[in-house]
Design a protein that fits this description.
Elements (H helix, E strand, L loop, with lengths): L1 E7 L1 E3 L8 E7 L6 E8 L4 E6 L14 H15 L7 E6 L10 H16 L6 H16 L7 H6 L2 E7 L2 E6 L6 E6 L6 H6 L7 H20 L2 H6 L7 H4 L6 H10 L4 E4 L6 E5 L2 H14 L7 E7 L5 E3 L4
Parallel strand pairs: 5-6
Antiparallel strand pairs: 1-4, 1-13, 2-3, 3-7, 3-12, 4-6, 7-8, 9-11, 9-12, 10-11
Helix pairs in contact: 1-2, 2-3
Length: 318
């Protein structure tokens, strides 16, 4: 038996929703912007190998790979149910760069656990799987948060709830929006990006954050596109993190002159996103970012839509 899970890249925070909003991405040209994990029958208890564009950035030892942690975590979850994990081999196709702000670790975690769960006839339900994904993501970032794993797993634009047994719920998106996402080729660790944030915030900033987040969610549900786009402003992280991203202000200025609805930092950065409603403008923005923002051969840029499906499972090998 062989199963493969594909888990898309994601935008954490989406500017206005620090740690509580996340959106899954799907390039309009059909490119794979996300990691894939294959799980198949094996004659030994466990084996792991890696491939893909960014596989060389991963630890050489399998025991230091997050996918190995997923295997251990899933085995422990099965044991609690009186079940045993099957002998298997895993292959991680690493298509997302580490420290990119595109939910790279979340993509590997979600793909690994989704594939393991499918391989074991879905022994965990959706909520149980998502809780385990958040727990493993927390081992990397230092705290449990779902704004990458939830959209990566479930698709769409997700609002983190984490109350009354509800982890997240989807909110409506605007079909006309294009999300131009560009990774410049440098890395910023989540820990580094969090360390630069202040320990305390002014009351006025907290009120502005809450007001804009509420207005964005309300506008999304009521179809007020202009109001929703106007709320995509960050007072919590961007004022501090933009210093870590070379040419960020140039990107914002050019995007504004090019008809952008909003520009923001994807997750912890350094990836930036530009939201636009005109496809041709979005494609021109992509060209400009490739020429002016990308710094090395690791960088890339995609014009995306929101990925409504999230993680996909197939029975075909890599």
């Amino acid at each position: 038996m062989t199963v493969v899970a594909y888990a898309p890249a994601s935008i954490g925070n989406v500017s206005v929703g620090f740690d509580v909003l996340g959106a899954a991405l799907a390039p309009i040209d059909g490119a794979l912007l996300g990691d894939r994990v294959e799980v198949a029958d094996h004659d030994a208890p466990f084996a792991l190998s890696c491939q893909g564009r960014f596989a060389h950035k991963l630890p050489a030892e399998a025991e230091k790979n997050i996918v190995y942690d997923c295997y251990l975590g899933y085995a422990a979850a099965l044991k609690k149910r009186g079940l045993s994990i099957k002998p298997l081999r895993m292959v991680l196709e690493k298509n997302l760069p580490i420290g990119s702000g595109l939910g790279s670790s979340a993509s590997s975690i979600v793909a690994a656990l989704a594939a393991l769960n499918a391989f074991h006839d879905y022994a965990l339900d959706q909520t149980e799987a998502l809780l385990l994904m958040g727990e493993l993501e927390g081992q990397i970032s230092g705290s449990v948060h779902y704004d990458n794993v939830a959209p990566c797993y479930l698709g769409g634009l997700q609002l983190m709830i984490e109350e009354e047994g509800v982890i997240s719920q989807s909110i409506p998106t605007f079909d006309s929006w294009y999300w131009v996402s560009c990774y410049p080729g440098i890395s910023i660790s989540t820990a580094e990006a969090r360390a630069i944030l202040p320990a305390q915030y002014r009351r006025s900033d907290c009120l502005t954050y809450g007001r804009r987040l509420a207005a964005f969610v309300h506008a999304s549900h009521t179809g007020q596109e202009k109001l929703a786009s106007a709320m995509l402003k960050d007072v919590i992280a961007e004022p501090y993190r933009q210093a870590l991203i070379p040419k960020f202000n140039e990107v914002r200025q050019h995007a504004a002159m090019s008809g952008a609805l909003a520009t923001g930092i994807s997750g912890s950065g350094p990836t930036v996103f530009v939201a636009m409603t005109d496809k041709q403008q979005a494609l021109r923005m992509k060209d400009w970012l490739e020429a002016n923002f990308i710094q090395n051969e690791d960088g890339f840029c995609h014009v995306c839509k929101i990925d409504r499906q999230g993680t996909q499972i197939t029975g075909q090998g890599l």
